[in-house]
């Protein structure tokens, strides 16, 4: 699944798209949030923005370096596919019922898992 830099860049772009959707929803949730929710939401916005920035940086490095990537192990590929399914499911759920904190946390956790798998490869 991720045997070339182009495939990894595509995967990172999918994660960036999902995180941008999460970021937009977090900003909407921030409007009218209670004071005790505000700090949590601000932290999530910061974490999400940082993750987006890291994925952009990773893609820039991949594009600039023309690096050859070693194929992922079957276990890592399976973990990555599971994480993408979690992201896809959360996006579908968001489209159906609207994102709440749990959905945002699910997307963030899955994207973090994707980042850890692709950065350790």
Summarize the structure.
This protein is mostly helical and 121 residues long. It has helices at 5-30, 35-65, 74-97, 101-120.
Give a topology summary.
Elements: H1 5-30, H2 35-65, H3 74-97, H4 101-120
Structural account:
- The protein has one domain.
- Helix content is 83%, strand content 0%.
- The chain has four helices and no strands.
- The protein has helices at 5-30, 35-65, 74-97, 101-120.
Largest sheet properties: none
Low-confidence stretches: none
Number of domains: 1
Helix content: over 70%
The number of helical runs is 4
* Rg measurement, Å: 15 Å
What sequence of helices (H) and strands (E) makes up the elements?
HHHH
Structural class: mainly alpha
Strand % is under 5%
Molecular shape: elongated
Mean pLDDT, rounded to whole units?
Answer: 80
Number of strands: 0
How far from one another are the termini?
12 Å
